[in-house]
């Protein structure tokens, strides 16, 4: 297929190849494509640091048989990612052969610039927006990893078109009962490290194939597309057998990469943006920047600079701020500065407003329920849609239960900064199995699964007592992501050694620095739970906590297409926000 | 008629699938269109038990067929008779069906052509027999009142017009119907028997479905398996052709 000449609104071949250079994609190829209308690749086409993989490389010439009535396609191998360019089916019906792009443009349909279709979700021209299809993957949906059960002949991945384009019809005898999770050539093997982390073999059932379909940044129902709109995908991406899980959501992160969210600088926004961009590599697509106990001036200065923001190539989305303190217990303040602790005994909610300022950007507030008039405060916060969490507290079980009845729904880092479990008064920990919670509701609880802050046995006890409420958090400090060695962070000297941070020169822990994907892997290995539950603890459960489970933390139809591509050992291969690649691992890039 | 007997359900399915593959390759498809079965009326398209969902989940989503080439009777059309007539017309315009694949019911029906259907019938609206309703109840949570009582279906005559017919019969509960279909005469009470008069029919079944047949019949057709297996030898013509 020859390249098309350029036309208004549609960058020509030269412009496009300049933007996506060989250097970025690391291979030597020239762009070739068939039609640009509605295909959504405007300028550039590079998302984040990785190649977007939109352009087709030197596929086999004349590779699509003219007799095939399916949409014409080019296939290019880009190491693990295989990209297929498919012409919109309406184009196939109206024309054949190369050069049809011009005819399409002449028919009056505006080519959609890429930036445009990304920013509008469900806006006008929705039906014309390009459809992406991620094939050869295992999707986490409905608490199950939907596997590609229909094993291809001899384990060869990819689909076999009806037109027999690459067909080897008549599967050999060896294929009987050969049901493998689709594996791309060179795609990773199942990790058998700890034994428990190994995935079970795929179920022996046909009809289990699930692909992820995305349009306009949302997950699409392909059946409706097929029968009502009579369309196929405009672009197919082969995932090489990877797991597709909803993007991780971190509801407690104090900073990272040298940035401290609680520091009142003039440009808090750029610090948040830096962290947002760097945590994409950990698989986090949405987060709640957390502020520790601070004087009111800090809140008044910092809060307005952290607005709620959608994610994208620039970084993970900000769901709102998590305010941890200052209305917490003196005894259990942990590392929070004592001087700035406060109470709301005098004016209840007005004290809260006076301390924080406007609450527009606030999503979660951690407080100690044993403080006087906490019930009024909890009710007022809950009425504004703010999630109330119990933590840094010496409350007993009864006080905690009453707080939950007033509207609290979360526990901040279970076991840490609260009274230990006691068999006659389990304290806040007892909420996990309390029978005095409002009907139909259960408590969520954050856990730092870095192997240090919680003993694995304690992790297992909590998990077994109440698996559906477990929310993985990093509670990361600014030392996150800094390499081994000594670093100066604000007033502190911190020494980083692997996954642990100490106050320099001591053995005192200085906060957690395990990235979210490390926490997920550690959690899986420590508890021996299913892969599905481990992934949900980092995605679905935080979304449920924040009441966002229709849009985030899930890959059901209509949800935002924020997801991560993981290999069998749950290492992040690629991160997508709104169906757009925003980060890609080095290995996959070559 | 060819009666292909395999050991079990999986092997029978696989044989049938390979055969269809080979037929498609030999046909060298270009503008071909295949038609699928009738649809129970009254269910919205996105109901999990609707024929659309069934065909999508079990067939269409695994292949890259152009959606415009997939035709399913729409049970929600306002004028059902016109819908059926349009369907027949589409078949004719496509040049007729090359291979019709279907199963049979325990009462020997093909598609939803219940016992008593005319053997020269066309696509139409049909009332379902109690047997069929009972058989389908499991898809509606066992609630008989939820099972549709009427269905749009291709007629026996429509299927007879296909150039080749393949019927899949598995399970012991279909054994009697298979016996009636091939060892007794052509009878509108067992509508599958109409295919005795079709020039090219293949019945693919498993061992359990042959339980009511004569040993002589079964032995005869099993003896022909070496011939039948040649029909599913892998063909490479498509790849070489490219």
Task: Describe this structure as you would to a colleague.
The complex is a heterodimer of chains A (590) and B (242). Chain A is of the alpha/beta class and 590 residues long. In chain A, 21% of the residues lie in helices and 21% in strands. In chain A, a hairpin with a 2-residue loop joins strand 1 and strand 2. The radius of gyration of chain A is 26 Å and the shape is globular. The model of chain A is unreliable at 1-124 and 149-207 (pLDDT under 50). In chain B, strand 6 (164-169), helix 6 and strand 7 form a beta-alpha-beta unit. The longest helix of chain B is centred in the N-terminal third of the chain and has 19 residues, at 9-27. Chain B is globular. At the A-B interface, helix 3 and helix 6 of A face helix 1, helix 2 and helix 9 of B. Chain A: Keywords: Carbohydrate metabolism, Hydrolase, Metal-binding. Chain A: Residues 243-582 form the Amidohydrolase-related domain. Chain A: Pathway: Amino-sugar metabolism; N-acetylneuraminate degradation.
